[in-house]
Amino acid sequence: MRYVPLFLAAAVGAAVCGCTPTIKTESEVTIKPVQIDLNVNLKVDKELTQALSPDSKPDLKADPNSSDVRERRRARRDQIKAFKSAQLLGENNKGLLEVRTENGKVTDQVRKVMEAENSDRRLVFEVVARKQNSTPEFVAQRWAARMAERAPSGVWIQTADGDWQVKP
Length: 168
Prior knowledge:
about 50% helix
């Protein structure tokens, strides 16, 4: 009879060990990528101001044949203002000047000033983009937004979606 208690003890032990409660958790952990948007607008705006603003160094002389972009732009500034006021030119959403007459025709003088200004702007957009590790297109869009914001009433402005409107 001594075997019965040992057998009983072994059976109870096996039952207890075999029937231990198991807690099963099914929690799924999903790691999603985090998108970080760095606002480089301020850096680009600062570079644009230094590179394109004709008033950033007021002591520069207005020389249309200078190697300095700011001097060349300063020499054209009054003409461009007059052409914009007369609604011959407008600021497009790519940071460039564009002809805004009904028939698309302007005098050679207007076209020459517009092309020279656009050429200088493109050059600066590329330089700023390289410095800021950006694209010339992004820099040009920032310039376009600034020009649209600062434009006086009565000037043609192209919106971001491509529509043209005269600034009220």
